[in-house]
UniProtKB/TrEMBL annotation, chain A:
The chain crosses the membrane at residues 34-51, 63-82, 94-116. It comes from the Bacteria. It is a multi-pass membrane protein. This is CidA/LrgA family protein. Keywords: Cell membrane, Membrane, Transmembrane, Transmembrane helix. InterPro entries: LrgA/CidA. It is found in: Cell membrane.
TrEMBL record, chain B:
The chain crosses the membrane at residues 6-25, 32-50, 62-79, 91-115, 148-168, 204-225. InterPro entries: CidB/LrgB. This is LrgB family protein. It is a multi-pass membrane protein. It is found in: Membrane. Keywords: Membrane, Transmembrane, Transmembrane helix.
Length: 123, 229
């Protein structure tokens, strides 16, 4: 546990800096996403100075990301407690969610697959 | 019951539901029994059985919510490790991002419109390709119902995360960069959790796509709706 603490402090520090920036510049981005970009900049800067990603940060990030599904379980469980508005319109909404998501997912995967294969053949 | 006890109970419920779901998935690894689905069913069943309201449960699950922010920041680490691969594929990634960000809400809205959805449903659906924290901020801005928007985003994410990878495998698409990017674009956080299960590389591309797609949606959607009305 002690070995992941420096990494955890770094993550929370970046998150707080991201929240601070999000409250001041209005670009419609949540603080956590700005925090992720800040940490990426920080790690990029360290790489330029020849320093690898600190071991503690690797451990903390692995630990957190391996339980990501647990972290948003409280939000996801809300699917079973939907407001009345969604229940009354369940058919169009359900069809749009299921088919809309899967059609869009297939389109983006086929498009990227095709473009990557083309560009990597040209290399 | 004191507030501390209630929070501990909620944490205990979340942990045991998740652990049971993981154990079931290890024995029967089919998409329909994915831990995201099973843990949600277990939590919902417990809440119904004990007569606990969802809002009470959600309020007392603060600890997990609190860690969601640092987890989003932590996505920078796999991204840094795979940055060279991302840069090399920059153009195809950006084109796919742009096409999907524009098409995804359009497809969902058109399907709902064809089946007779009202304006509230259409507005909430239009924010569906942004990850939950971004979608909630967006809902406020475009005048959609927050609860409806959150439900749609989470449910779409779970559908994409659970059924996306098997469908792509059947289409012969197994490149972890492609699967990850498509999952992040269309299934946000749930998709990224699933992508991280597949591989670190897949997760890095999914996290990148989730951040970019949410950002672009946040920038474009209010503008597009103003143009339409």
């Amino acid at each position: 546990m002690q070995r992941i603490l420096p990494g955890l402090a770094t993550l929370i520090g970046c998150l707080l800096a991201g929240e601070w920036l999000a409250a001041r510049i209005d670009i419609g981005l949540p603080g956590s996403v700005i925090g992720m970009l800040l940490l990426l900049l920080l790690l990029g800067g360290m790489a330029l100075a020849g320093r690898p990603v600190p071991d503690s940060l690797n451990r903390t990030s692995d630990a957190l990301l391996s339980v990501l599904a647990l972290l948003f379980l409280p939000a996801a469980a809300g699917v079973f407690f939907l407001p009345e508005e969604i229940v009354r319109q369940w058919l169009p909404i359900a069809a749009a969610m299921v088919f809309g998501t899967l059609i869009s997912l297939v389109i983006s995967a086929v498009l990227l697959h095709w473009m990557l294969r083309r560009s990597e053949r040209d290399d | 019951m004191t507030d501390t006890t209630a929070q501990l109970l909620a944490l205990f419920l979340n942990l045991t539901a998740f652990l049971v779901a993981l154990a079931i998935y290890r024995r029967l690894p089919t998409p329909l029994l994915h831990p995201i689905i099973v843990s949600c069913v277990l939590v919902a069943a417990t809440l119904y059985a004990t007569g606990t309201g969802y809002d009470t449960y959600r309020k007392h699950s603060q600890l997990l919510y609190l860690m969601l922010g640092p987890a989003v920041v932590a996505l920078a680490v796999p991204l840094k490790h795979h940055f060279k691969l991302v840069r090399r594929a920059a153009v195809p990634l950006m084109v796919t991002l742009l096409v999907t960000t524009l098409l995804s809400p359009l497809i969902a809205v058109l399907i709902a419109l064809a089946l007779g959805a009202n304006e509230q449903a259409l507005l909430a659906l239009s924010a569906k390709s942004a990850t939950t924290p971004i979608a909630l901020a967006l809902a406020d801005e475009i005048g959609a119902l927050q609860s409806l928007t959150a439900g749609i985003v989470v449910f779409s994410g779970v559908i994409g995360a659970v059924f996306g990878p098997p469908i792509l495998t059947r289409l012969g698409i197994t490149d972890p960069r492609v699967v990850g990017f498509a999952l992040g674009l269309n299934a946000h956080a749930a998709g990224t959790a699933r992508a991280l299960e597949l591989s670190a590389l897949c997760g890095a591309f999914s996290g990148l796509a989730m951040g970019l797609c949410g950002t672009l949606t946040a920038l474009l959607l209010p503008w597009a709706l103003t143009m339409l009305s």
